[in-house]
Amino acid sequence: MAHTKVTITAIAREAGVSVATVSRVVNGRADVGRQTRERVQELLRRHGYRPRAGTRRGRAALVEVVFHQLGPHAGEILRGVERTAAPAGIGTAVSVVPYETTGPDRRQWLAGLRRRAPSGVILATWGLDPALHGELRRLGVPLVMVDLVGWSGAELPSVGATNWAAGRTATEHLLRLGHRRIGFIAGPPRLPCNTARQAGYREALRTAGLPVEDRLTVGADYANADPRSSLEACRRLMALPQPPTAVFASCDEMALGAREALRGLGLRVPQDVSMVGLDDLPATRLPATRLTTVRQPLREMGAVAFRALRRLSRGDRLDVPRVELATELVVRSTTAPPPPATAR
Question: 2: left (phi > 0), else alpha (psi -120 to 50), else beta?
């Protein structure tokens, strides 16, 4: 396999390790076990994976993608970056820098970044850390942000998604099926994407001539990765005197948690209650899940971010500093018309 084709995701899959582990081996980090390192190095040699040295301004033909944590969103974004970077002969490194990372840990990571000398950095983080942003700018490294939370500042180029339209699209789908009581499980309001999705939900109801009932909106905190939050939120909705016949959750992870809550209450999806998520993560496509969702184009966001970074690393100007990609409804098996007894 040519070294411009293989990706560290493919190496990680074959080695049975995380992408971050392969990235640490590629970058010569010491915090990898001997057997794991040797296994990964053998696969790198076998597939001919060697990021080629770039000479422009002394920087490597390497793009570094920074996450606060690894998860399904990170995997999708990274696939988009790699599939665009590899044919151009650009390697990909992955760093996980928790939001709370400060002091010696941050200095160690920045020192490693200086040694690697990437041609640019993609920040795929849950918000912009001003301190980290400032330190990266002082290094003179081109930066682009994959904006997962609806940050709209102008301090650096960013690629996001149409969150307001996504909320409206999900709600309109349920309205077209005949639902008139639609619950909304909202993410943390500190994240702008969640307020935008809720605004789209409310606008769809108003456009349909329906009242916007505050009690049909309950909060859950998926940012803390606690599945109990969305389970409890869904139970609160279904405990209302007039419970909803459909639920729209602000992200897929919350929708899957809410579906478990419905199962625990003896309610069937979609026969008794319809369910819609948002993101189109891999877990939603499994035969046992088949979640109707609004697709956030995470892979495309990664690809667009890489192309923008490539232009910046060449000294070119971007036509626009902010790009928002369209979301898309994906209908699967968790939505249906409301039960006859509740349809009006």
Answer: beta
Q: Which residue's entry shows tokens 């794991």?
A: 36
pLDDT band per the 50, 70, 90 thresholds, residue 342: low
Q: How far apart are alpha carbons 217 and 200 in whole angstroms?
A: 13
Residue-range domain boundaries for the chain = 8-161+298-326, 163-296
Out of 3.40.50.2300, 3.90.209.20, 3.40.50.300, 3.90.180.10, which CATH number does the structure's domain 8-161+298-326 have?
3.40.50.2300
Q: Which residues of 297-315 are buried (b: 16+ CB within 10 A; e: fewer)?
A: bbbbbbbbbbbbbbbbbee
Neighbours of 255 (CB within 10 A): 30
pLDDT digits (tens, 9 = 90+) for 213-270: 999 999 987 655 466 788 999 999 999 999 999 999 999 999 999 999 999 999 999 9
pLDDT tens track for 276-300: 999 999 999 999 999 999 999 999 9
Can you give the pLDDT at residue 315?
79
The one-letter amino acid code at 251 reads C
One fold for 8-161+298-326 and 163-296: yes
pLDDT at 314: 81
Decide if 219 contacts 157 (C-beta within 8 A): no
Please list, in sequence order, all residues whose beta carbon lies within 8 angstroms of the beta carbon of residue 84, skipping any fewer than 6 positions away. 302, 303, 306, 307
Nearest CA-CA partner of 120 in 299, 319, 320, 316: 316
